[in-house]
Amino acid sequence: MQKLTQLSNLYFSLPTPTFKRYLYTQIDFKSKLIGILGQRGVGKTVLMRQVAQSYGLSASKMLYISADNIMKTLSEIAIEFSSYGGELLIIDEIHKADNFALELKTIYDFVNIKVIFSGSSALEIENSKVDLSRRALFYKLHSLSFREFIAIKYDINLPVLKLDDILTSHQDIASQIKKQFKPLEYFKYYQEFGAYPFFTEGELGYNLRLNEIMNIILDSEVATIYNVDSDKINTIRKLLHLLCASVPVELNIQNLASQSEISRNTLYSYLYYLQKANLIEIIGGNFKNKKLLNKPDKIYLENVNLYNILCSDKNIGSIRESFFISQMKINHDIKYSKIGDFIVDDKFIFEVGGKNTGFNQIKDVPNSFVVSDDTEMGFGNKLPLWLFGFLY
To answer: Which region, left, alpha or beta, applies to residue 286 given φ > 0 means left and ψ of -120 to 50 means alpha?
Structure first.
């Protein structure tokens, strides 16, 4: 316990950013068991420290541990810490602990202590033999929005926008934002290195760090959680590159399986793993327990920065649509639309394209909008793509 306490004190002594991610305001701090899931590198560890510090407890009342650096079980640590007056236990990388679900259940049921834990996006919470749903509140932390990137890099804090406000008042909103910075210039930076907060550690090495993180997600998290052999992980890596090169409107599942040299059913399993790990985003398909109920309509990399490390020949259309989906999916339902590109919340039709994209495909369609890249200001039902980066 002495060594764990020393490491914990170092954790709490680290500088804590004042800016808080969008998820911070959504967390129920009164809950006894809080789980924060997300892709490696999105900022879960910092968020947990911010949440912990909000309780106003003394250092002796809080303990931070990483599940990959402990010799005892989680429940043993919790019981011992509680006996010394501990009130808050923070567990990082819960997926690396043996029988973590059972251990958390034991702590919840028998130890008078609050627990905050983080885990991989790929964590199979819902398929665990121990049901944690009645005990824990789970939250998912996604990659940075364009708004969050601007706040962290340039210390320009702007409010989250509602979709309805963007659709009805985008010209006024964009005009006000333009007074503080050049949207297209900053949007270009975001597309290069803005989806993960570790860009603050150095932008020149950003892609190297991102590539390392992706390899850890595949070689460690996906391989361990889904019991995938190393040679199959290489096949999954090849699949990612194929997805990167594909044009969404030309998605052909059978061709994708043939190029990956795997069966159709195996392809569906791998797509499920990649989506759970937050490396891809699937529109349509409707997975249930690794089985695809219907064919995916479109598949994208989860955020625009992943295209920089996976694509030798990036498709600009895929990147635009990937950004739109990554910003929209947090608070809205997105489906494929045969008219335009997407239908959001079963109400709004969106066609996503370049600055010269017109209304040909959605002419005379109610509640339809063109989302235009390389456009600083919109007009009427034509809106700038970058503005959707303020939805969270």
So the answer is: left
Residues 268-298: b if buried by 16+ CB within 10 A, e if exposed: bbbbbbbbbbbbbbbbbbebeebebeeebbb
Q: How far apart are the first and last CA of the chain?
A: 39
Helix intervals (H) in 246-369: 253-260, 264-276, 306-310, 316-328
Question: CA nearest 306: which of 223, 245, 251?
Answer: 245
CA gap 69, 93 in Å, rounded: 10
**Tokens representing residue 326 in the block:** 């990554």
Alpha helices, DSSP H only, in the chain? 2-13, 44-53, 74-83, 100-110, 146-154, 163-178, 183-193, 206-216, 223-225, 230-245, 253-260, 264-276, 306-310, 316-328
Kindly write down the DSSP assignment for every residue of 127-170, as one continuous string.
Answer: T-SS--TTT-EEEEE-PPPHHHHHHHHH----PPPPHHHHHHHH
Average pLDDT of span 12-32: 96
Q: Comparing C-alpha atoms, which of 121, 140, 137, 142 is closest to residue 34?
A: 137
Q: Which amino acid is at 182?
A: K
Question: CA-CA distance, 374 to 387, in Å (whole number)?
Answer: 11
CA–centroid distance for 113 within its chain: 29
Tokens 């052909």 correspond to: 252
Whether 277 and 253 have beta carbons less than 8 Å apart is answered as: no
pTM for this prediction: 0.93
Radius of gyration over every alpha carbon of the chain, rounded to an integer in angstroms: 22
Select from 242, 225, 344, 312 the least CA-distant residue to 276: 225
Q: What is the pLDDT of residues 239-284, one digit of tens each?
A: 999 998 877 766 788 899 999 999 999 999 999 999 999 999 999 8
Give per-residue pLDDT as tens, 80-98. Answer: 999 999 999 999 999 999 9
**Helix 146-154 with 183-193: angle, nearest 10 deg:** 100
Q: How far apart are CA 171 and CA 375, in angstroms?
A: 12
> From start to end of 15-75, where are the E strands?
33-38, 62-66
Sign of CA dihedral 122, 126, 127, 130: positive
**d(C-alpha 161, C-alpha 233), whole Å:** 39
